[in-house]
Amino acid sequence: MFQQLGLIGCGLMGGSFALALKRAGLVKRIVGYSKSPSTTERARQMGVIDVEAPSALLAVSGADIVLIAVPVASTEATFKSIKHLVTPGMLIMDVGSTKRDVIDAARRALREQVDCFVPAHPIAGKELSGVENADVDLYQGRQVVLTPIDRTNPVQLQQAVDVWSALGCRVVKMTPESHDAAFAAISHLPHLIAFALMNSISGQALGKDFLSLAGPGFRDFTRIAASEPALWRDVILSNREELLNQSRMFQRNLQSLELMITSGNSEALLEQIENASATRANWSMAKQQK
Amino acid sequence: MFQQLGLIGCGLMGGSFALALKRAGLVKRIVGYSKSPSTTERARQMGVIDVEAPSALLAVSGADIVLIAVPVASTEATFKSIKHLVTPGMLIMDVGSTKRDVIDAARRALREQVDCFVPAHPIAGKELSGVENADVDLYQGRQVVLTPIDRTNPVQLQQAVDVWSALGCRVVKMTPESHDAAFAAISHLPHLIAFALMNSISGQALGKDFLSLAGPGFRDFTRIAASEPALWRDVILSNREELLNQSRMFQRNLQSLELMITSGNSEALLEQIENASATRANWSMAKQQK
Predict the structure, then answer these.
(1) Which pLDDT score is estimated for B126?
(2) Is A257 at the interface with chain B, CB within 8 A?
(3) What value of ipTM does the predicted structure carry?
(4) B254 touches chain A (CB under 8 A)
(5) DSSP class of residue A281?
(6) Cβ pair B244:A222 closer than 8 A
(7) Contact residues, chain A, for B183 at CB < 8 Å
(8) Strands (E), B36-174
(9) To probe the interface with B, which of A98, A210, A262 has the most B CB atoms within 10 Å?
(10) Which of A234, A273, B134, B147 has its CA 20 to 30 A from that of A57?
(11) pTM, rounded to two decimals
(12) Residue B58 pLDDT > 80, yes or no?
């Protein structure tokens, strides 16, 4: 049981965490801060937070648990703004979809107090963002990846496991490097590919005619291309190293298929497609998420 | 009104056409042939066809409308097997998802009688194939692309327009080249990419762990990777030229995004993502299909 949650960023992710923590009876009081005062006010009116803080620093003051739920590009600035009120027993977590850059930012800003920080990535979301869409059940039944480092205090790490488990999450621990490679492969690269494909088609003279013929397969394949541009620009840049690595591996696979097509190697092509099809069908059955 | 449909291939596409043609009162009798005798028998038992033909040639005998609904790789063999009973007034159509190769096959096999042939691609389908899944409403409200050539007889072309319109389709006419480029861009390349991505991930040491973290975005993006391998091997090979061309354009776009990432050109990257996102959002609103 925590006394006070300092919530920095009262949007979809942060707001939903606050609602769920309160419902689980895990916190007495929630002090919230958002960059936009109207968001903070709206969060208080909705009962997502109890008290509005005028700054990130003051949201942390007196907290024993802190959640940083801001865009990845703002994480370092947030660490810097709170560092003077971080205390040794405090549990600090984030919700960012990249981890190496967040950890680097935490090391630079928090220095020896980085041991309070447990990097977290709850795999949950909605098409609609903002505190208006905060949902007490957002994390229920989802996975959360924790990527502790050598310096991470085992006490805070265990608290983090307990908190997310209490919210109904399946907790997975990985190294930050494996996490970033995984999400480059299963999320960031698919987005990059979808962006590139849309631009490739729309850049052709008959692109509009082509698009008018596209059906359900194309609809599902390109759905992620309509994601929020600024958010994805930030995610892509913050995970650039692993993303470029995954993109290179993908292109090698694509070019190997192209070679089979060019040479008319029907058997090898079939084998590769069978492998892809079986992997996908198998994944579909084994998946853990809703 | 036609006297007799010769149906070659009594699967999902052919069976659904037969059911719809009969319901529309456009044909008196349906003679069907499938490579597998048990399929032909099943089609007759289900009332999809009236009479079982022992060969493709005999299915065409006495027909005034012929639909070839076989895998693209079997199209040329089918043309060859029926050519001796093709008569001048006959309307012959296919349902293949590539057109240049089908037209080449028709020219080679039918010679001067290629003028009876109206290349057709109804944009409809289901995850489940086979005559068991034949659906009288499969074509209702969908688009059908006709790709006539110089030699195509205007009488048969108009009949083809009338038939598909009567089945509730929106008829679009295109050159075979534009058709193949369009489907390379919006369908065949997305499949090839999805295959390559699945193989790229599953080929990595931690691939299984990565996949266990994948969520709804990945699910939709890779859904088409689970498509039927042999069918897609054939489609890919039959449209290889346009597909490789589209793949090259896509890779140029991807590599241009990579360059922006490498150089940290955040503004250009955002602009490209915004363009992709807007194109996709716009398409979603303008789409004609169910």
Answers:
(1) 75
(2) yes
(3) 0.86
(4) yes
(5) H
(6) no
(7) 213
(8) 51-52, 65-68, 91-94, 117-118, 120-122, 143-146, 170-173
(9) A210
(10) A234
(11) 0.86
(12) yes
CB atoms B178 and A243 under 8 Å: no
Question: Distance between CA atoms of A90 and A113, rounded to whole angstroms?
Answer: 10
What domains can you pick out in chain B, each with its CATH number?
2-174 (3.40.50.720), 178-286 (1.10.3660.10)
Among candidates B183, B221, B225 on the partner chain, residue whose Cβ is nearest the Cβ of A224: B221
So what's the pLDDT on residue B185?
98
CA-CA-CA-CA torsion sign (A65, A70, A72, A73) = negative
Nearest to B196 among A178, A225, A254 (CB): A254
A219 at interface of B, judged by CB pairs closer than 8 A: yes
Whether residue B181 and residue A225 make contact (CB cut-off 8 A), yes or no, is no
- pLDDT given for residue A33 in this prediction: 98
Region B234-252: mean pLDDT is: 97
Judged by phi (left if over 0) then psi (alpha if -120 to 50, else beta), residue A262 lies in: alpha
pLDDT of residue B285 exceeding 80: no
CB A164 within 8 A of CB A144: yes
Determine the residue type at B153. Answer: N
Region of A9 (left: φ > 0; alpha: ψ -120 to 50; beta: rest) is left
- A43-48 — which CB contacts under 8 Å span 24+ positions? A43/A10, A43/A15, A43/A18, A43/A131, A43/A134, A46/A15, A46/A131, A46/A132, A46/A134, A48/A10, A48/A15, A48/A18, A48/A19, A48/A131, A48/A134
> Which residues of chain A form beta strands (DSSP E)?
2-8, 27-33, 51-52, 65-68, 91-94, 117-118, 120-122, 143-146, 170-173
pLDDT of residue A286: 37
Strand A91-94 and strand B65-68: pairing? unpaired
Q: Residues in chain A with pLDDT < 70?
A: 127, 284-290
Compute and round to an integer the Cα radius of gyration of chain B.
Answer: 21
Contact of A210 with chain B, judged by CB distance below 8 Å, is answered with yes
Kindly determine whether residue A277 and residue B247, on different chains, have CB atoms separated by under 8 Å.
no
A273 closest CB neighbour out of B174, B195, B221? B195
Residue B185 DSSP symbol: I
Shortest distance between the Cα of A233 and any Cα of chain B, in A, equals 6
Closest CA to B234 of B78, B102, B126, B56: B102
Examine the pLDDT at B43 and tell me if it is beyond 50.
yes
Query: Rounded to 10 degrees, what is the CA torsion of A203, A204, A208, A209?
Result: -170
Q: Does B285 touch chain A (CB under 8 A)?
A: no
Predicted confidence (pLDDT) per residue in A111-130, tens digit: 999 999 999 999 988 767 89
State whether B181 and A210 contact (CB < 8 Å). yes
What digits encode the pLDDT tens for the residues B89-119?
999 999 999 999 999 999 999 999 999 999 9
CA distance A133 to A138: 10
Nearest CB partner across the interface for A236, out of B145, B195, B261: B261
| CA A239 and chain centroid, separation | 11
Kindly list the residues from chain B whose CB atom is less than 8 angstroms away from the CB atom of residue A268.
none
User: What was the pLDDT predicted at A288?
Assistant: 45
Task: Tell me which chain A residues have a C-beta less than 8 angstroms from the C-beta of B182.
Answer: 206, 209-210, 213
Q: Which secondary structure element, helix H or strand E, spans residue B190, and what is its range?
A: helix B189-202
Q: Which of B223, B258, B274 sits opposite A247 (nearest CB)?
A: B258
